[in-house]
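Entry type: protein chain
Record version: 2
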Amino acid sequence: MVKIKRATHYNDDGQVDVEKWLTHFSQKRSAKEVSFLRHALHLAQVASGDHLTSEGQSCFQQGVIMAEILFELNLDVETLVTALLYNTVRNADLRLEDISEQVSKGVSNLLAGVLQMEGVNLWHKHHEIHIENLRKMLLVMVQDVRGVFIKLAERLCVLRYASTLNKVEQQKIAHEVMDIYSPLANRLGLGQLKWELEDLSFRYLEPQTYKKLAKLLDARRLDRENYIQDVISVIDKTLKKEGVVHFQISGRAKHIYSIYRKMKRKSVGYEEIYDVSAVRVLVDTVEQCYQVLSVVHHLWEPIAKEFDDYIAHPKANGYASLHTAVLGPQKRNVEVQIRTIEMHNVSELGVAAHWMYKEGATRRSDYEEKIAWLRQVLDWQRELVETENISAEAQKKLFNDRVYVFTPKGDIIDLPVGATPVDLAYHIHSDVGHRCRGAKINGVMVPLTHVLGTGERVDILTAKESHPSRDWLNPSSGYIKTARARAKLHHWFRQLDFERHSQEGAIVLEKELKRLSIQSINPEEVAHQLHFKSRQDMLAALGNGDIRLSQITHLIEKPKSVPEAFVVLKPSRKVTSKAAFIEGAENFLTYTAKCCKPVPGEPIVGFITKTRGVAIHRKDCMNVLQSENLEEDVRARFIDVKWYENEKVSYPVDLYVVAHDRHGLLRDITSVLALEKISLLGVQTKLGRDNLAYITLTVSVSGLSLLNKVLDKIQYLSGMVSVTRQVK
């Protein structure tokens, strides 16, 4: 059976005694790190409360166990704190913003990266959809490999406590670990985690076979242990006799899943597997490794084809060791592994060995280590998609459509194949792209049209005062590949004409407002409603054609919500001199003032007359503007009013038309009104000496948008000079 390591700080129920664990932690770490970890423990304990993981475990306890697993890998305290808080963020109410404020920005960023790796868990369901998730996971992994350690520790915790889940969930998790995380642990050289992940997964995938092998191993355990002790004793005495110093010898039982694989590979039963146990010898130097090998081969006969020199030819994940098998005492097969202590650390900790705690700090991998790590991750992803029978098209999207390059700081950038240094510059920041003047690849100058390749370290050279070239936008020039860079270039050149477009927009808007006889608007408010930062941005957009005049005039007309303190005007359904009632006070008469004839959508104000009720004026009406010179008791008769929102009614408006006199002119104008179902309330015509007709029309319209539409249609009639709204 798989035996989970139980140190003295574990209780009988498998939970961690936090104080004992802190004491254990403090024996190897500084007081500052102990304080940092204690603070995080307190935050996790308070924030997690009674929240549980999907396996029914306490979020807090599972976080502590994850941190303990990583502590045994000797990782830095920031990684331990991130692991500690992971389940509380994932399953409770703790947010990344809280962690950034109360713990550290580094922990928050690392935790965000681990959470981004969640998408790969759905890999088995939708291969094509989650190609992008796998790519994101790759970026997170290469940016900060510690995120991978945390994710592996989390999966191991889930497996340890998966017995509470139903069989379907158990097998789903086990398949995922076998297909994704166990190969990843192997690529990382994390032997200590790999074997436990495999054995626990095997227990749920093949429960009967697992139990049978575990029972057989337990039955022969005493005989096996006595035999290995005899072998160790012989090697120990011989090495001392040969003058080998500073060595360690230990016995190691093969893991259940590795025995199962060997049985399948050789098509034999358990009884025919003789090397279920192995002897491991650790020494100081490579020379001593070969010296010990010579001693072992002198003691017992080597078995043909069972020798592997992984020191001369290390595995892809960095594993190095000498493996040999001999006919030991009683002519029984014995496997012997010989390696240095440093090789052993790499074997057990893999890439984690580069992140081990050293004198209160961590050591980040340099550029060469990151390149090697990138290759490992890419190899792992290729193995994953090959075993999952992913389509050729999906594999192309993952491996052939992207390149991964490094910045001078060691950050990795994901770009499409064919990307250039200019694309990278704009990916980093718009200003870097605008000022880009050259690039170095691995320290060598290259042209800006250079096509980037995976693993290249790119240094963008910039000038203090510079600007992009229009040649970059030419597709045949080869300067840019990405739509992102192209869009930023277009935006920069469009901004060059900002002032000109802003002036043109102001002229167009002023002309339209004059035509509609709208004398005052709040341009900043209108710009905000159109999602522009300022009035100038809105005018520039109007000038270059990004927005239309109708979008602005529509907002001017659009009714606003009516505060309770305002009197609400409810217009009558017929156009009369009385015009409207006040909602809630039907006997309070209202009417539109003849001096300005307001229509819905225009800012208005009411004036309480002595005999006729409330007169409704436009706020920019000359009579209202001149009221500041009146007595105080007269000014007090002005009240706030708002248009009633829910009814479509008509209001009288005067139009003033100047046109070249011709036959059928008035008929054409009235035809436009008829087509729009607008009532003509009155008309006055006058013929000037210059053969120009001056026509005043009183029409009934429901609001500014209809008024604007009618003005436009009349303006396009033959012989028109001008069409404007007339305000007395």
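Comment: The chain has six domains: 18-205, 218-355, 401-496, 498-557, 567-643, 651-726.
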